[in-house]
Amino acid sequence: MYIARSLAPALLKASREFPVVVLTGPRQSGKTTLLKRLFGKSHRYSSLDLPDVRSSAVADPRGFLLQYPPPVIFDEVQNAPVLLPYIKAWVDEHRSRKGQYILTGSQNLLVSRDVTESLAGRAAIMTLMPLTRREESADWAKALPWEKGGSSMDGGPSGGGLAGIINRGWYPELAAAPGRDLHGWHASYIRTYLEREIRSLRQVGDLVVFQNFLRALAVRSGQLLNMADISRDLGVALNTIKAWLSVLVATHQVVILTPYFVNIGKRLIKTPKVYFTDTGTLCYLAGLSGPSQVLGGPLGGAVFEAAVVAEVYKTLANRGEEPRIHFWRTHKGEEVDLVVDRGDVLVPMEAKATSTPKPSMAGGILAFQRAFGKKATAGFVVHSGTIRLPLSPGVTAIPFSDL
Question: Mind spelling out the 3-state secondary structure of the chain?
């Protein structure tokens, strides 16, 4: 079953404007399926994930590119970066030909010196994250609540149904096969993909310790990130913790939220927070065994907050935008879970794992609006129930299904 993706229009547009299109994103997010759907009839295809194909490309890059002339899709191109200078040379000789090379990678190729040097000015770089609620509901073009045309999305999950989806996660393979063994799938994902990619980018001597690092991040979801504490708890050097975290960011497994900060006359918390980009991965690593533990257990608030952050992040990324999202927190305890920076305005949002939103939950948003004045828009308290109601002037409670 093919699930339409909101990035498709941006990808097609980029292929008409750039010689090279680079699509990054976590493994299993649907990159290959999307590209074959859009370009399968016009482009050849080669996966550099296969050992023999990779060896052929590395041994004789010129010959390999002659074997797969453009237009062509090269999957997991980070496995053969030696191809990139030769692709650059071809592009420089045929600058008027657009959309000739479509490259994918499960690592953020922006961190690769070879890519930035070889494809600068020649490539459009985009990211495909796991599914959004819009995409799974076949309503991928729907505007976000604060955007023009934004409105409710009736019929969305809530309560136990929402907890089940959060526990499952948003990878297309799981969405398309409701009967899959979730624990087994996520265990395989962690073992087969994350550990392999970590090993390809950073030497990991003890995979058990690395697994403990992942779990330590999971139980700290939404908290101010203190890497020194993690280093001390695991008995691992601080620089190693930083290196492992950077790889998780590069492979799109986590997103780092930095605090929104301008000089408004008060001291603000400046330590970042970390969130997993897929709630299924988060629930597996946190040891949550089923939906009953997801929103009702001691980590329920943190898991729901992660779901809200990830949904906004994925929605923006999956339509070709750079997600500019932050949090806000002062030393006085005033806090907003999520601030969406739209350039000229700021959208404050709170996440509450409850079906009964109350006016007191708007306190952080009201403080933010007072601090930023006209730059702050109306705010939203996103909750796990179904109702929509005003909590105070400028603050509305909306269900998760409206995201």
Answer: CCCCCCCHHHHHHHHHHCCEEEEECCCCCCHHHHHHHHHCCCCEEEECCCHHHHHHHHHCHHHHHHHCCCCEEEECHHHCHHHHHHHHHHHHHCCCCCCCEEEEECCCHHHCHHHHHHHCCCEEEEECCCCCHHHHCCCCCCCCCCCCCCCCCCCCCCHHHHHHHHHHCCCHHHHHCCCCCHHHHHHHHHHHHHHHHHHHHCCCCCHHHHHHHHHHHHHCCCCECCHHHHHHHHCCCHHHHHHHHHHHHHCCCEEEEEECCCCCCCCECCCCEEEECCHHHHHHHCCCCCHHHHCCCCCHHHHHHHHHHHHHHHHHHCCCCCCCEEEEEECCCCEEEEEEECCCCEEEEEEECCCCCCHHHHHHHHHHHHHHHHHECCEEEEECCCCCEEEECCEEEEEHHHC
Query: What integer pLDDT is reported at residue 58 of this predicted model?
Result: 96
pLDDT digits (tens, 9 = 90+) for 124-136: 999 999 999 999 9
Query: Which class would CATH give 8-127?
Result: alpha beta
Where in the sequence of the chain do the CATH 3.40.50.300 domains occur?
Answer: 8-127
The tokens describing 165, both together, are 């989806």
Say whether pLDDT at 271 is over 80: yes
Residue 113 has pLDDT above 70, yes or no: no
Q: Quickly count: other Cβ atoms within 10 Å of residue 197's Cβ.
A: 20
Nearest alpha carbon to residue 120 among 270, 18, 236: 18
- Residue whose pair of structure tokens reads 């657009």 in the numeric block: 98
Burial class of 36 by CB neighbour count within 10 A (0 to 12, 13 to 18, 19+): middle
Q: What is the pTM of this model?
A: 0.93
pLDDT for residue 361: 97
